[in-house]
Design brief:
The complex is a heterodimer of chains A (316) and B (326).
Chain A lengths: L7 H15 L1 H8 L1 H18 L1 H4 L40 H37 L1 H15 L3 H53 L2 H8 L4 H9 L4 H25 L10 H9 L8 H27 L6
Chain B lengths: L1 H28 L3 H5 L6 H10 L6 H13 L13 H36 L4 H15 L2 H15 L12 E3 L3 E3 L4 H34 L2 H8 L4 H38 L5 H10 L3 H29 L2 H7 L2
Antiparallel strand pairs in B: 1-2
Helix pairs in contact in B: 1-12, 5-6, 5-8, 5-10, 6-8, 7-8, 7-10, 8-10, 10-11, 10-12, 11-12
The chains are: A mainly alpha (316), B mainly alpha (326).
Chain lengths: 316, 326
């Protein structure tokens, strides 16, 4: 056996890529120009957020780099602008572009983490609810119903408020991102649970599950190894749409002043800071982070919309 | 029918009970209520006396029963930050929030329905596509940023409308204040109402559009066409009527969200309503206000849900048999 021989994995790999390119979903993706643009925008935003420490022109957290003398410099194209600050600076002299890149990191991190948290919790409860049924199902679904009575933002705000009381102000700074993730995640799990429960109840009566049961495989292995992969399709769609919602919720909470503290600003925190300068003419401090947020959410929403249609066999 | 309504009623009571339990737990266990009420110089003996007087040493069940009794009379004690009865504070703020919510719901309905009918009837026209793109952008922009943009354009730039507060209000009766009767009050309403109603408006528009597309394909519409009825009466009387059931449901349910989203709008516009009060309470860990707000909004939500459920069954006879089987 030499290295020249084609390994079977390569063939499988090639086959998989070819299969993806040939699939319906890929075709519908390429056909829709809006979706392609949305995907590109999302990718650019995510990559630049990920690479923020390397590509940002300034480090907004490095006190040695920022100078109060650079405060409130307008973006280029306006009078008294400075070419090294493309989008201007805020009241502390921090570069807006860099601030937005770093802020997007926090926004996306909280968004992804809270969606992951909500999905794991919701999938777990939905699987158990649908598979076990009976009283467990009734209890979980009643809780879900009660929670569904209230809008997610109210629940997130409330959990955040409770955490405020429990942690006190000192610890809050350190834990803010995690508290935020937890409160957003906890306010979004219901949708996953209900969807997964529905599909689990359908899967439960299929032959492969019955067969697995007959040969004595324990319930939790059937649930997580056999049923779970078959109910994941809709979860992906919900997760994408929820990512946009989670980012909005994070920004909203931060804007309201109960989210991420000003020491590690997210996009919402930046808008909150900028809001105070709207009337003194420094509009760019609030508007640029807001536009970045809106573009990000719009792109993710468009992707989610497309995915919902593409994965829905009824619409084909 | 009766069975269905009574089951819903029981569910509503259970929800209120759970919310009361959460509020009580909040009030009793998040931080020490005594610490919040007294100053640093209060001696341990005085604290203990206060604790005894407020009944905080009684068994938890007794305390919870007392909390429920208080809640039924809307008595939640004094706010930690304002040292005033919570009921009074909320009562003073309630008219502002209700007026704002009412106006934005009207805005959402009276702009959303015609837009929905238009886009449903003329799917491929350029204006329909414009409406749809705008609605997608409306959904993607966070409420607070829409508010900021409106302030930036209409208050800072054009200086047409005020950016904060309610303007001049007129007192009606003992406790209601209204901004409807003064010019500055009405002007102050415009931007917050649009901000708050925009999301609901896009929702109603998309819903009506989808329903219209569905209804226009049905046989009875084709038949009405064949009979030569004028298209105006087909579109607005025969078709629109049948799209109304889901619209009533969604709009009803959205009334609750409007009250919740009022928190954000009120913060952006410094609107002196309940939401702003609640947000300050969250920031300052003012538990009595949080508990009271929670109970009040839960009550509003549960009542709306119940009303919508019942209305649904009353409007659409087909649902009676289906639903009562649940």
């Amino acid at each position: 056996m030499t290295d020249q021989t084609t390994r079977p994995e390569d063939v499988a790999e090639k086959g998989r890529i070819a299969r993806i390119i040939d699939s319906d979903i890929f075709h519908s993706f390429i056909r829709s120009k809006v979706t392609v643009i949305a995907a590109i925008v999302t990718a650019i935003f995510m990559i630049s957020a990920l690479l923020a420490p390397w590509i940002a022109p300034h480090n907004p957290f490095d006190l040695a780099q920022i100078s109060i003398l650079d405060a409130r410099v307008p973006p280029i194209g306006m009078d008294a602008s400075d070419p090294s600050f493309l989008l201007g600076t805020d009241d502390q002299g921090r570069d807006m572009l860099s601030g937005i890149l770093y802020g997007m990191r926090i926004s996306l991190a909280v968004g992804f983490l809270s969606v992951a948290f909500a999905a794991v919790l919701g999938i777990f409860l939905g699987l158990v609810s649908g598979y076990v049924g009976g009283r467990t199902d009734a209890i979980i679904m009643r809780i879900a119903e009660v929670q569904l009575t209230f809008p997610a933002i109210l629940i997130a705000l409330l959990i955040d408020g409770i955490a405020n009381g429990v942690f006190g102000n000192l610890d809050r700074e350190r834990w803010a991102v995690w508290i935020l993730t937890f409160s957003i995640g906890l306010s979004f799990w219901v949708q996953y649970a209900r969807t997964v429960r529905g599909s689990t109840m359908v899967e439960k009566n299929k032959e492969y599950v019955q067969a697995a049961r007959v040969i004595g495989i324990p319930s939790f292995i059937i649930m997580f190894r056999h049923v779970l992969p078959n109910v994941m399709g809709p979860v992906l769609v919900i997760a994408t749409i929820n990512l946009a919602l989670a980012i909005i919720t994070e920004a909203t909470l931060s804007f309201l002043g109960v989210g991420v503290p000003a020491t590690q600003p997210s996009l919402g925190t930046l808008i909150r800071i900028g809001n105070d300068f709207l009337f003194s003419g420094e509009w760019w401090i609030a508007i640029f982070p807001g536009l970045a947020l809106a573009m990000l959410v719009l792109a993710v929403n468009l992707l989610g919309d497309w995915m919902r249609d593409a994965l829905n066999p009824k619409l084909r | 029918m009766f069975g269905f309504i009574s089951r819903r009623l029981v569910m509503a009571v259970v929800v209120m009970f759970v919310v009361a339990l959460i509020s009580f737990t909040l009030f009793r266990f998040v931080g020490d209520p005594i610490n919040q009420m007294v100053g640093i110089e209060t001696t341990p003996e005085q604290r203990e006396a206060l604790r005894e007087r407020l009944g905080l040493n009684d068994p938890i069940i007794v305390q919870f029963a007392r909390f429920i009794m208080g809640a039924l009379q809307f008595d939640f004690g004094n706010s930690y930050q304002f040292k005033q009865p919570v009921a009074e504070l909320i009562g003073k703020r309630l008219p502002a929030t209700l007026e704002l919510s009412f106006v934005s719901a009207l805005f959402a309905l009276f702009v959303g329905v015609p837009m929905g009918v238009y886009t449903g009837l003329n799917r491929h026209s350029a204006i329909s596509k414009l409406f749809l793109s705008v609605s997608l952008i409306g959904v993607s922009l966070p409420t607070f940023f829409i508010g900021i943009l409106l302030i930036f354009v209409f208050s800072v730039h054009l200086q047409w409308l005020p950016s904060f507060g309610r303007g001049d209000v007129v007192a009606l009766g003992g406790w209601w204040t209204t901004g409807f009767l003064t010019v500055s009050g009405l002007k102050a309403l415009i931007l917050p109402a649009i901000t708050l109603g925009l999301f609901q408006m896009t929702l109603i528009m998309r819903l009506i559009r989808a329903e219209m597309l569905e209804v226009m394909r049905t046989d009875y519409i084709k038949f009405a066409r064949a009979r030569g009825l004028p298209s105006r009466s087909i579109n607005f009387i025969h078709a629109l009527k049948n799209t109304m059931v889901p619209v009533i449901t969604i709009t009803g349910l959205q009334l609750g969200s409007i009250i919740a989203f009022a928190i954000i709008t009120e913060t952006v516009f410094q609107w002196p309503g309940m939401g702003l009060l609640f947000l300050q309470a969250v920031q300052n860990v003012d538990i009595p206000i949080m508990a009271a707000y929670l109970m009040l909004t839960a009550f509003i939500f549960v009542t709306i849900n119940l009303a919508v459920d019942i209305l649904y069954v009353v409007i659409d006879p087909r649902l009676r048999t289906e639903r009562s089987g649940l």
